[in-house]
Specification:
The chain has 230 residues and is of the alpha+beta class. It contains eight helices and four strands. A hairpin with a 2-residue loop joins β1 and β2. 19% of the residues are buried.
Length: 230
């Protein structure tokens, strides 16, 4: 992970994000991934520098409980394991979720993402997955789609389009990256179509607005379509 600082610049009536890196980027790697060193795409996220929230601490330990019940591994060991994984991922940065922590909301979100990744990778059941914090909610929905796991019961899922595709329209001719989707098993997929999104959301206390997936993720999970960038 390369650290950077980004600032907003206004030039000729346009808004630009200028990024200052802490070291020279690996141009060979950039060219290998992007095909060019002149223009490439970056993922970035605004850092929330507020002190890590008690809700994040509660979520972290709730997820550890789920993993401990599944694996019969002690909580203290799991905590140390994920703290070490966080330090490795951030190249030595330490984290704490104690009341006196100096870690930020963004730091805690990185830790939570690592835990959620682990649970999906090893198929650890989420006992209350749909009650994740708002920021992590979208990430949870993304992981459900990426791993084709039902957001309600954790079973094998299909990709449900929130933006309904009209009858008679060939799904392989649709640009799915422009539509909102969620992951639901056959039973819950049928239920949401039977009772409607509003009643479904009220029954299971879940968001049903869906998320948009990028073209590469859609292709990786086998959702064929006609993508504008192809």
């Amino acid at each position: 992970m390369q650290r950077s600082r980004t600032e907003l610049v206004v030039h000729n009536g346009k808004y630009w994000l200028a990024t200052e890196l802490d070291k020279k980027p690996n141009l060979e790697h950039i060219e290998t991934v992007s095909g060019s060193t002149d223009q490439f795409y970056m993922d970035w996220e605004l850092a929330d520098t507020r002190k890590a929230r008690p809700q994040q601490r509660r979520l972290f330990f709730a997820l550890l409980n789920d993993i401990a019940d599944w694996s019969v591994v002690p909580h203290d060991y799991l905590k140390s394991m994920f703290y070490l994984q966080y330090a490795t991922y951030t190249k030595g940065k330490q984290i704490s979720l104690s009341d006196t922590t100096e870690s930020s909301v963004s730091d805690a979100n990185v830790l939570l993402d690592l835990v959620i990744d682990f649970m999906f990778e090893w198929h650890v059941p989420f006992k209350r997955g749909y009650e994740l914090l708002p920021r992590d909610q979208e990430y949870y929905l993304f992981e459900c789609c990426r791993h084709r796991v039902c957001m309600i019961c954790g079973g094998r899922a299909d990709i449900h389009h929130v933006d309904v595709i009209g009858s008679g329209l060939n799904r392989t001719h649709v640009d799915h990256s422009k539509r909102h989707v969620i992951a639901l098993c056959r039973r819950h997929h049928g239920e949401i179509e039977q009772i409607g999104a509003k009643a479904f959301s009220a029954k299971y206390h879940v968001p049903v607005g869906g998320i948009k997936l990028d073209r590469e993720t859609l292709k990786r999970i086998g959702l064929r379509g006609k993508y504008s960038s192809d």
